[in-house]
Amino acid sequence: MRLANNAPNQRILEVGVGTGLSLPLYRGDARVVGIDVSPDMLAKARDKVERLGLRQAEAIAEADAERLAYPDNSFDAAIALYVASVVSDLARFGGELRRVCKRGARIVIVNHFSQEHGAMRAMEQALAPFAGKVGFHADFRLDDFVRASGLTIRAARPVNLFGYWTLLDCVNEK
């Protein structure tokens, strides 16, 4: 959150806002537009915004990250947490993030990317046919994502439980 939420008065797009777990973590002067495809989760996010008086939440909306209804250059930053491996078209997803973000905007993505070798790689390949049942693509390669999304990665680092997830710090160079 700190990477994209690092300057005053930013307008930030959060893709996959879910129940709004991250909304209280934004600066009070931020203007956050949280989107998700789940109406049930969005209802919980709206409730959280109201209950906690989160003025930084400009909008909580049902939206598809591959077909955003926002004009070009609408956002100073974007955050996509745990959604990259569940979108159907990575090129479209990356293109939409680049389109709606201003040039030079920071785009932060946290997602699982498959390991290159070892026992974990073998397990991910074995789980690949069950992607729909486990909720994400276990065999999701970082280089495939970078190539398809068109995002420019400044840094990548392991985060969360045992470093199994990766934080990508990207910049919009469009």
Compact overview of the structure:
With 174 residues, the chain is of the alpha/beta class. 27% of the residues lie in helices and 29% in strands.
Give the SSE layout.
Blueprint: E1 11-15, E2 31-36, H1 39-52, E3 57-62, E4 75-81, H2 90-100, E5 101-112, H3 118-127, H4 131-134, H5 142-149, E6 152-159, E7 165-171
Parallel strand pairs: 1-2, 1-4, 2-3, 4-5
Antiparallel strand pairs: 5-7, 6-7
Helix pairs in contact: 2-5
Structure description:
By secondary structure, the chain is an alpha/beta fold. It has helices at 39-52, 90-100, 118-127, 131-134, 142-149, and strands at 11-15, 31-36, 57-62, 75-81, 101-112, 152-159, 165-171. It has 5 helices and 7 strands, in the order E-E-H-E-E-H-E-H-H-H-E-E. The longest helix has 14 residues, at 39-52. The mean pLDDT is 86.
The CATH superfamily appears as Vaccinia Virus protein VP39
- Count of alpha/pi helices: 5
| Gross morphology | globular
What proportion strand? 25-35%
Please state the average pLDDT score: 86
Radius of gyration: 16 Å
- Which CATH class is shown? Alpha Beta
Query: Secondary-structure element sequence?
Result: EEHEEHEHHHEE
Based on the model shown, name its key terms.
27% helix; 7-stranded mixed sheet; 174 residues; alpha/beta; 5 helices; 29% strand; Rossmann fold
